[in-house]
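call fold(seq) -> tokens
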Amino acid sequence: MEDIAKDILIRASQGDIQAFEDVYKASSSFVYNVAYRVVNNREDASEVAQEVFMIIHHKLKEFRFESSFKTWVYRITANSAINFAKKVSRTKTVPFEEAFGEGAVLNEARTQMDQEYQHQLVEKLLAELNPDQRACVVLRDIQGLSYEEIAQALNININTVRSRLKRSREKLLSVRRLVNYEKV
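ret:
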């Protein structure tokens, strides 16, 4: 996400439509990408992104510049996406077989998989994690945030970040072993 000048943020918080449009343009792809990695669905990510910008619009006047704007937006986006994913998961569960497909084709040409297949595999693996774990993995391994930044963005203790990442990686390794086992 590109930096947004403080004066633009202040004008947007005071109701300047053009300034808010500048904020939206600078952060919309970032918000969508974080939301998408957490909810793992394009339509749901769009819905989360819309919700995030409504929240930003209403709460921007409360932003006190005590943290970076990017961190503040991370926090809103991650929390909104986690809440959305939890709400959806209560109404819909996807069995392991459906997520990975029965008889998935994994052969020795795996090293030559095209980028789309790799992207789909990452999505399916992330779908195995609960929303809290998925948010931590996305923020750390995809967005490149430090443990401290993740803790600040999600408003959780740094040790919680560590434990969620540890559990996530253990789960992903076990799922991956199952996928590799099916390959043989």
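Residues 6-183 form a domain with the Rna Polymerase Sigma Factor; Chain: A fold (CATH 1.10.1740.10).
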